Each structure stands twice: as structure tokens, then as C-alpha cells.
Amino acid sequence: MSAVTSTRIVLASRPDGDPTPDNFRTETTELPELSDGQVLLRTVYLSLDPYMRGRMSAAESYADPVEVGDVMVGGTVAQVVESRHPDVPAGSHVLAYSGWQTHAVADGGTVRLLDPNRAPLSTALGVLGMPGFTAYAGLLRIGRPQPGETVVVAAASGPVGSAVGQIAKIHGARAVGIAGGAEKCAYLRDELGFDAAVDHCVDDFREQLAAAVPDGIDVYFENVGGPVTAAVVPLLNTYARIPVCGLVSQYNATSAPEGPDRLPAFLGAVLTKSLTVRGFIQAEFVRDMHLDFQRDAARWIAEGRLKCREDVVDGLGNAPDAFAGLLRGRNFGKLVVRVGPET
Fold it and tell me: DSSP string covering 289-342, please?
């Protein structure tokens, strides 16, 4: 096969605060010929997720940072153009981690075959992919919602938060979502069946949140941090559980927040209310929960009990702007970039 050229977006510099176009650079590169066991991939969809902001930083974290000059990381749905792996045929669609580029060479053992007749391909990056599994594992393993309890989730209209609320409802709990804007709140109530939704942008957010949880909060699924968390903590019940999935409000921060140190008061609540607070990365639950997730999520989708919304951006070149908007809450639903046609 003749040489294949890939267009890719690399990390040009580490951001100081909000990512800007200057932090990215578009390049073209010629890909090497395949070796035994490898596959050539053509990207169809690229997932954009908040964790990518942490990978742009050199700060110590749970995963190595993207090096300056390297391709930005990211989950992808791709079509196999050429294969030298016996179990990954050319023409098939796969879930990969090939990042912000139009084509890539990958080890065939690292990709997972997808069935386009089972569900739309893009859902492998959302409700049937990492975000959906994050919601499933974090809520059920750490949050452990019981029938009749109240589950509150921040960033509730996003791919993780929306799944958290719906799975809480499936398990008999009461679901309350926190989102930014009246449209997103209406979507949570009217389309996804949340029991209540509260707009964190309104002046009386604290009062509205308190009114939405008259019996207190038993599970708080943390995606945001900052003022939203400050409003939630006084409403937590004794023995409440807090799965800490993300802190998106702080990802672009360049200094400590203004005002008094709130850590002593939070630790006081942890002590006096016997709270369980646990951070997690979804990968730690893959071995013992992922098969159950695939089975349950597929059934719930077929039954109409688990729904999803996608925010699709066309063109790899628009990924940097879309990503910056994601960190500011501009997206509505799971954000994916359509890099190329499905077939």
C-alpha cells in the first residue's frame, strides 16, 4: 500500500489557565508501513473529555502528561484501512485510543471491535464507552444508592452526569441534577426523567438546591468542585457517599481560590457526618465491572431507560476550540468531533 499521510494536532505548549489556540499545532506526517500485528486506522470520531486538560499539564497526576510536540491523546472510533492482525479485519470499525489525528498505526491487540448494527458508532465514546462506564462504576461501587435515597450529581447534562442520574433512577433512588442554564435543566427533567434540576448560574442557587432535596443528600457524585460543592456539603446526610470523578471548575485555575480556607470545615463535615469520600479513575474497575456494564447499559438503552445526547463538531481542525468550550460548559451532551465519514 502506498504511504499514508496523517493530519494531527499536537501539544505546542503547556497552557497557563484556559487553553488557547497557541497551545496546539497542526502537522502532517507520513505514517510507517505496518508490521505484523499492526493495523492502519482512519479516525471517524474523536472524543473530547475534561481529563485532557490535566494531560496538557506537567503536574503530577494519575497518568503521564502529553509531552510538548506529541499528539494530543483521546479515545477514537476508527475504521481499519489495512490490517496485519488476524483478528481485526480491514473495513471493520474499532474503539481505539489514537488521539487527535486523521490516521494512525496501532497494535491490533489494543483496539476493540465495534458492531455498527448494535448501536450508533459514536456511542462507544459516550454512553456505551468510558463516560458511561465512569458513571456506572463510580455510582454503583462508591455511591451505592439505595431505593428512596437522594442522589445529586453535578455537571448533570454531560455524558457522565446524565448517566449517573438515570442509573440512580433505575436503582430506585431520587435523582437531582445540577447544570448550567434553564435549557439543560429542562432537558434533565423532561427528557431524562430527573426528579429535579437546579441551575447553578442563578443567584439563589443555594436556596433552590436546598428546596430540591428536602430530605438531604445521600450520594453526591462530584464532577465540578468549587461553589457547587460548597453549596452541597451542608445538605449532606449522615453516612453520605461522595464519589469524586472530576473537578472541572478548577482545571484552568492558576492560583488558589480567594476567601477563607474551606478545608477545615469540609473535614469537619467528613468527621461529624461520617462521610465516605473517594476519588476514582474508571480504569481501576474495568476488570471486575466492565462486562456487567456492557450488558446492563445495552439492555437499559434498548428499554429506553438510559438515554444520551451528543454534541457533534465537524472537522479535526475545530477540536481545539471545541475543547476550550468544553471546559467552560459550552457543550450540551457528549462532545465528539466527526473527523471523517463512517464508511
Answer: HHHHHHHHHHHHHHTTSS---EEEEE-GGGHHHHHHHHHTT---SEEEEE-S--
